[in-house]
User: What shape does this take?
Amino acid sequence: MNVIEALNARHSTRAFLADPVEKEKLIAVLEAAARAPSWANSQPWEAFVAAGETLRRIKKAYLDKYAAKEAPAPETPIPAAWPQASKDRRKLLDEGLARTCGEAAKQFGALNRNMFNAPAVVFVCMDKTLSPWSLYDIGAYAQSLMLAALEQGLGAIPAITLALYPDVLRREMNIPDNLKMTIGIALGYIDKANGINGFVSERAPFEETTHFFG
Assistant: This one.
């Protein structure tokens, strides 16, 4: 599989098998992701990987907070508003999910709340002194991580919902106060029997977002 094939093959996994991911595969993925580019070679990312009993405790704590209707407190601000083009694409996503997956699409909310049943989640942090500029580097790291996961036969999905309750994550993984959580990326083997994984979101033609001059 070449780079273009990998970019086209990568898509979000919304339901994982319970099978644990081998430690050597996680290490291979994280080593490859660390090759991502960054401004002035700053390498602002710090990754905290939760699996096994630690991840079970995190999931339970999240479910308890959902049940108590506790307000989320992500440290990467959620946009207060979206431009119309983004709203239109979100609508197409929802419609495509319902059309392709049928009844299976209705489980999305529950899967999201349970971290997609993933056996491993990578929580990517950066130092609080850094500016949003470094979020570009975090994005490059995240994409590299997900492509490396594909190479290892794993599915992945990035989601801010994975990082909604930083207090839980800090408690369970001893994340220091000088770091802020940017995003979570769930990893694992794809549950191919679950119909929700039959959906792959479309992309707008690149001409809509690309402008050539000269």
